[in-house]
């Protein structure tokens, strides 16, 4: 194969003008690709960061809700009672028990979902019409969410729920 390549290269005649033309065409294309890659990486980083901030902010409410659901059948209590019980027995860190798997989930899930939505939306937009109908957008959003949820995050969800169940040992 190497001999074939050498033979082909010996037969091809390339002038200096051809090389200059190729360089002038390739440089802008490479710069555009680098800029597009940089914009995509910025979108991914910002999507992950914003999702992790939102998860950190709402996690105490979520952990209170989960523990309330686990113990509502055994002995009914209010959400306020559950939250104060967590604070009394475990401190403020008890409200954030299990946060790390949730943050890791959003590190992958949210950018895949949002970037996947954008890619699918651009794939379905026709060149003469630059918008999609609301049902089409909803369908594309559902597809990107299912792909991100199923393929990437199933293990993170399992890990988070197993940690929530371990945290219920404090109520037994």
TrEMBL record:
Keywords: Membrane, Repeat, Signal, Transmembrane, Transmembrane helix, Transport. It is found in: Membrane. It comes from the Eukaryota. Residues 1-16 form the signal peptide. One of its GO terms (cellular component) is membrane. Its main location: membrane. It is a multi-pass membrane protein. InterPro entries: MCP_dom_sf, MCP_transmembrane, Mito_Metabolite_Transporter. Solcar repeats lie at residues 42-123. Pfam families: Mito_carr (PF00153). Belongs to the mitochondrial carrier (TC 2.A.29) family. PANTHER family: MITOCHONDRIAL DICARBOXYLATE CARRIER-RELATED. This is Mitochondrial carrier domain protein.
């Amino acid at each position: 194969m190497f001999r074939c390549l050498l033979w082909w290269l010996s037969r091809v005649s390339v002038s200096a003008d051809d090389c200059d033309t190729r360089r002038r065409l390739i440089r802008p294309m490479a710069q555009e690709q680098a800029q597009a890659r940089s914009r995509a990486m910025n979108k991914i980083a910002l999507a992950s960061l914003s999702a992790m901030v939102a998860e950190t902010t709402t996690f105490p409410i979520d952990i209170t809700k989960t523990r309330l659901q686990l113990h509502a059948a055994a002995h009914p209590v209010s959400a306020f009672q559950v939250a104060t019980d967590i604070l009394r027995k475990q401190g403020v860190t008890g409200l954030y028990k299990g946060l790390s798997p949730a943050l890791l989930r959003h590190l992958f899930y949210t950018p895949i979902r949002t970037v996947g939505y954008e890619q699918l939306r651009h794939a379905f937009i026709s060149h003469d019409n630059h918008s999609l109908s609301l049902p089409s957008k909803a369908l594309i959003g559902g597809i990107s969410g299912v792909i991100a949820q199923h393929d990437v995050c199933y293990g993170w969800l399992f890990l988070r729920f197993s940690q929530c169940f371990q945290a219920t040992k404090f109520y037994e």
